[in-house]
Each structure stands twice: as structure tokens, then as C-alpha cells.
Amino acid sequence: MTQNLAATSRPAAVPAAVPAANASGSRGWWRDAVIYQVYPRSFADSNGDGMGDLPGIRSRLPYLRDLGVDAVWLSPFYASPQADAGYDVADYRAVDPMFGNLLDADALIRDAHELGLRIIVDLVPNHSSDQHEWFQRALREGPGSALRERYHFRPGKGANGELPPNDWESIFGGPAWTRSANPDGTPGDWYLHLFAPEQPDFNWENPAVADEFRSILRFWLDMGVDGFRIDVAHGLVKAEGLPDIGGGDQLKLLGNDVMPFFDQDGVHEIYRTWRRILDEYPGERIGVAEAWTPTVQRTANYVRPDELHQAFNFQYLGTAWDAAALREVIDVSLDSMRPVDAPTTWVLSNHDVTRHATRFANPPGGTQIRTPGDRELGLRRARAATLLMLALPGSAYVYQGEELGLPDVTDLPDEVRQDPSFFRQAGQDGFRDGCRVPIPWSGTEAPYGFGPTVGGPSWLPQPAEWASLSVDVQTGDPTSTLELYRSALAVRREHPALGAGTAVTWLDTPEGVLAFRRDSAEGSFVCTVNTGAEPVRTTAPGSVLLASTEVVVVAGETVLPADSAIWWAV
Ligand code: GLC
Ligand code: CA
Fold it and tell me: Would you call 511 a catalytic residue per the annotation?
């Protein structure tokens, strides 16, 4: 049966136009930016030590410009003992020698700007490394030290203080408290760490902490960065008195329920002060919240007009490959952001979750998947999911390697794993190394151009099949995933109906199919997505701009192949 794609719903009311935010008349580059996440360890290794670095990234900037992204977000490259791959920062104003130095950072930022790319750096304000000077001094100086007030030190419970101060559990598993030793070696107070014991939480009630981070923001803004991705943005403020949670599986509550250490209303005052600093600088510097909250509506609080600019849409990332579920999360996301006038964001992968090519190859089951599943199916769906994501109104995030269609590496031997959550297995994550394997650029032998020497090292081993997924192999092959991304990003830039926006018009579709229209004065656009396993016959809504798989249109009719997405010019 041929199904007509008729409009069934009008776009929801859109607020009156907000005045242009900059001289060029556009409303802010970040409202429709495609932001590419670089994981510095695994992008490009310039000196052959097996670890990616800043000069490596710098040498590959032209690749990112040609790919067609607007900005690059760099995961942390600061001085760090690497207990959590750099999310344990010992010095917020220094580059870890394994990644280079400040001159390399400066050169990277300058080159990026020359190529028209913006740079967003990661900021980790919830906790420092236990090797941070403040924490080391707090330990050395013992109870009573003013430095202890900058973290959460508490005496233990029990006759001899042998029990943790409350019942909070670490996100990585085990208690969220570790007992410190007094300067004389006897057991002392406990300190709070929502993540690994090497990541003590800052006490944001202490003015010295707030002052220090305002200064760190300015340091990097003065270096020329265009914005910050704020790590654990929902965690900085803890409920007064650090109350027990009491019973239940705390990890299951995370992100679903209000927790005394997450999404406390007090965090918003911090972002208001940060926004004022960002606005002091020219060129629209932005803040992006990594905030895991129970609902998209709660996430919207982080992007109110006087707070941050964007927040990751993790509800979207966690949605299964299912038309009805996708339609619902898209509507809820757009509806939640409209009242605060912030762009909706879309993200499928990052350095903390199983790559979406592998998630979609398996039955739905969370974001830490251990089986390769049906690879061909996963890739078909991943390609379609990308076209869907890039057609939606707002800003999108691409994680390095997804443009190559890389699967997660699910069979890494335990001995090579480095993710601290793997070693504290009762925790939430556990298998994050699988999405952190260095990406393949060229050649037939590992490290496939990741490092300069054929046969040279890479900090995690790459699968042999990755030779056929390299940038070189995929370049120029019109059927490759890399060329699909390049084309999609080019069309997205050119088409007047794509990019920023606040609504889509859903079209009537059979079960398992999504179709929506986006309109502009200069032309309309339709995206059709079939998440089902059977092809669906339909009228063609226009002419094909781009498709995730082969499509044929005959006499105005077409078939939407199983697990596909098609972009149409109307
Ligand atoms: C964020 C990071 C993750 C890290 C954690 C602790 O969730 O994305 O990689 O382990 O914060 O800093
Ligand atoms: Ca290196």
C-alpha cells in the first residue's frame, strides 16, 4: 500500500523573534553548530609514543575543516595522573607533558581559528585529582587545615570513625568516601569522591573554590578558547548536611531521581556568575553542561538565558532505534528548550558510552554493551540515525570515529583496559575503553596512521579490521560512512531549512516510520526514517538530497528501505 506523507500537526507556537545577538545578524553560531568531540589520547599521536597529543590534533585540523564541522570539543589534556583518563586534574592551567605544553595549546587554538573552527575545552569543576596541590596540602596539614574546607572532609561514624560519614555510593562503584591518614599515619577523616578515590569532590560552598574556577575560566578565555564543556555540571552543589539516601539501588536512581549530590538548585547560581564572565569576552564564548538530570525539563534549567548555552541531550542518546520512541523524545526535547530559548542538542556517542553502531547492533539495553551484535545492522542503523540527528533543529555532537562508522571494541583483553570504572565493577560504567580505541587514518598495519611509525604502539590495541575503515580507504568512496558524513554536513550548511530552529512538522506515517518537514522561505525539506525491518512503499515527498542507503524513485513513488533515512528537497 502506498502511504501518503501528509502533515498531521502544526509546529508548536514559536516565541516572537529574539533580537540578533551579534553584529552579523545571526543569532549565535552555537545555535546550530555541529561540534566534533576529540578524545586527545586517541585522535592522533605526533611523536610515536602511542598516546595521542596536541600537535597530532593540530596536524589533523584540516581534516576536521573538510569534514564540515563548526567546532571541536577537546576532552581534558591538563596535567593529570590519568586515574580517570585526564578527568582527574592536578593543574588546571598546565598541559600534561604526555599531550604537549601550553605553546602547543596556543598553536592549536590559533590554527583552528585560521581554519574557521572554534575550540571548546573541557572544564572539570566537580573534583580535582588527589594529586592537586590543594588536596595534597590538605592531607599534609591534617585536621584543622583551611585547605580541608575546599573539599568534603568528615569524621567517620562508628566507635572509632571506621564507618563512612554517610551512605552515598560512588558512580564507579563502592562507597563515595575514602578514609585519609593523619599526618602521623593514624587513620583520619574521610573525604568525599563521587567518582574514583583519586577524584576528591570540591566543596563549592567555599569561596576559594569559586574564585579559583572564575580565574581558570579567564585563563583559558584569555588563551582564546570559544567555550567550555562543563564536566558533571549537575554535581557541584551537595544537599545541606550531606544527608543519607537510605536504601534502594543508588545507581539505578542516578539520572532518574533527585539525589542529594546531583541537580541541586544551588548549581544554577554558579552558572549565572560564569555566564557573566563568558559575556565579558568578545566572540560569543559558550558553556555546555554535562548534566544528567531526571528529565529534559530539568536539563532546560541549565540553559536559561542567564546561564549556560547548551546542555547535552542524554535522553536522546539513550533512546532505542524505534520510531515511536524517537518521535516522543524529539518532541519532548524541542518542547523543553523552547521556553528557555536555548537550542536543543542531539548526540549519539561520546567517550563514556558504547558507540552507537554497536548499541544499534544489539537489542536495546543501556549504554555499556559488551557484545558486537549484528555489525551490518548496527552500521545501517547508525548511518540512518546520523541523518536523522543532523536533520533536527538545533546543534549536534559528533564523537571522533563515528564518521568512520567505527564499532565499539567489545573484546579488549582485561589487561589493557584503563577505565577506572572497569576495576570498580559494581559501578555505573565499566566498559568505556571500547569507545576510546585510537582511530584509523591510513595504511594496512597498526596503528593505521594514528602514530607516525608503521608497527608503532597505540595505548589501546586496534582491531585488524580497522585497516578497511581508515580515513584513507573511505575517502572518495561514495558508499562510505565518511563520505555520507561529509555530504550530510555540506547539505546541512547549504539548505535553508536545516540547522537552527525550534519545531518540526510531523507527517502522517505508518508504524515504524518517521517523517517530518522543515520549512523556510527559500525551500522546504523532509526527512523520512524507517526504523523497521521491512521496506515501506510511499509517495516520494520530493527529490532525494541524500540517503543512508540506496533508494530508487519511480513515477513519484519510492520504497523506504529497512533501517534507513532519506533527506528530500521539497
Ligand atoms: C564525566 C566524564 C567522564 C568522567 C566523569 C568524572 O562524566 O565524561 O568521562 O569519568 O565525568 O569526571
Ligand atoms: Ca604522543
Answer: no
